[in-house]
Amino acid sequence: MRLGAGASHLTYCTNIHPGETWAEVRANLGRYVPAVKKQVAPDRDFGVGLRLSAAAAAALAEPEALAELKDFLRREHLYVFTINAFPYGVFHHKRVKEEVYLPDWRDPERLRYSNQAADLLFELLPPHAAVEGSVSTVPGAFKAALGGADDVVRIAAAMIDHVAHLVRLHRTTGRTIALALEPEPCCMLETVAETVAFFQTYVFSHAGIARLAAATGLGRAEAEQALHRHLGVCLDLCHAAVEFEDAADCVRALRAAGIRIAKAQISAGLRFAPVTDGTRALLMPFDDGVYLHQVVERNGHGLRRFTDLDEAFAASDAHAEREWRVHCHVPIFLDGLGAYGTTQGFIRDVLAAHRREPVSDHLEVETYTWDVLPERFRNSDVVTAVSRELAWAARQAA
C-alpha cells in the first residue's frame, strides 16, 4: 500500500507463512493476504512482498498458474512490487542455518533463479509504469565459504550478468527492476562499509562497467547508469542494528557511494545490554535449531562476532562490560519483551530519516520467525500480528 500520494510502498514479506511449493504459497496468499488487507488497507490497493522458492518460481512460470495469480490479484485489489528470492529452497520446519545462502552467487543456478524471479516480477508488476520492482537476494555468499578474492570476482561477474538481463527487460518493456543485495552478519557483505567497498571495487569499477557494456551493447556512460539503476541493496534493519551500524550514517554512506537502497526490510532483533550471567538462559528458548542466530558483541575492545548462539555461549574470555545483539527477527511493535530488549530504536531512527527524505520506495516488514518464536511471544494470530506491525510501521514512516 502507498503511505501517501506518490510515497513509498509498504507491505510485509510472505515468508512468514511456511510454504515451499507453489500450491502452498498460493494457498497462503489466499488465506492470509486479503485478511491482512482488510485490516490495514480496506479501501485501497495493497502490495504483496512475495517470497518464492526456486520450485515455486518454476511452477508459477507456467502460463496457467501465472494467469490464475494475476486474476486473483485483480479480484482482491492486490499488486506485487517486490520478491524475496534470497532463500532458494526450504525455509521453514527443518534445519536451514548456513544452507540458506546456497546456491550462492558463485553457482550459475543462483543467476538462473534470479533471472526467473525478475521475469515473474515483470509479469506481476501493476500496469502503471512508475511502479518499479525489486528482488532481494543473498549478499554474495556466506563469508566462511569463500575461497579468496577470485570468488568475489566471480560473484560480481554473475551479478553484472544478471543486470544485463534486467537491462534487456527494461529495453523491451520500459519497466525497471533492481536486484537488492541484503547485507547480513557473517556474510560476504555484512556491514555497510564492506558493501560500499564491494560496489566500488567490483561493480562500479572499470572492469564492471566494461563487462556490462559488452553484454548489452551499451556505451560506458549508459552501462554505468544501468549498474546504479538495476543493482542496489536491501537494507535489513535488524541486520544493520545487530552490526551496531548508526542509522543516519549507513543511509548517508550508501547514498554517497551512489548505491541504491532498492528495498528496506523493517525488522528488529534482540538486544542484551549488558550481558549478564542470566543472558544465556534468556536466549536458550530462541535457539530453535532452524535458523542462524548470529551474535555481535560490543565490548571495550570493539566488536566481536559469533556465527550462532552456541558459539557465543561457549566463549570463555567474556569481557565484563559487553552488549549482545542477536539476529532473531521479533515483532517490530515491541520495544521490549519483558527481560528482553530489542533493536526497535534503530527502526525508529531509520523511519524518522525516511520521513525527512525517503530512504527507499520499497518498505517491507519481515518477521519470518513467527512460527519458531517462544510460545509466550506469540499471543495473537499471525494476521493480527502482521497487521499490527504494518500499522506501527506506517505510523513511524508517514
Structure, explained:
The structure is a single chain. The protein is 43% helix and 18% strand. By secondary structure, the protein is α/β, with parallel strands linked by helices. It has one domain: Divalent-metal-dependent TIM barrel enzymes (TIM Barrel, Alpha-Beta Barrel). Helix 1 (22-40) crosses helix 14 (382-397) and helix 5 (149-173) crosses helix 7 (206-216). The two termini are 12 Å apart.
Task: Give the SSE layout.
Layout: E1 9-12, H1 22-40, E2 46-51, H2 54-60, H3 63-76, E3 78-84, H4 108-124, E4 133-137, H5 149-173, E5 177-181, H6 192-203, H7 206-216, H8 220-230, E6 231-236, H9 237-242, H10 247-256, E7 260-266, E8 268-272, H11 279-283, E9 295-299, E10 302-306, H12 309-314, E11 322-330, E12 336-337, E13 340-342, H13 344-356, E14 362-365, H14 382-397
Parallel strand pairs: 1-14, 2-3, 3-4, 4-5, 5-6, 6-7, 7-14
Antiparallel strand pairs: 8-11, 8-13, 9-10, 9-11, 12-13
List keywords for this structure.
398 residues, alpha/beta, TIM Barrel, eight-stranded parallel sheet, six-stranded antiparallel sheet, 43% helix
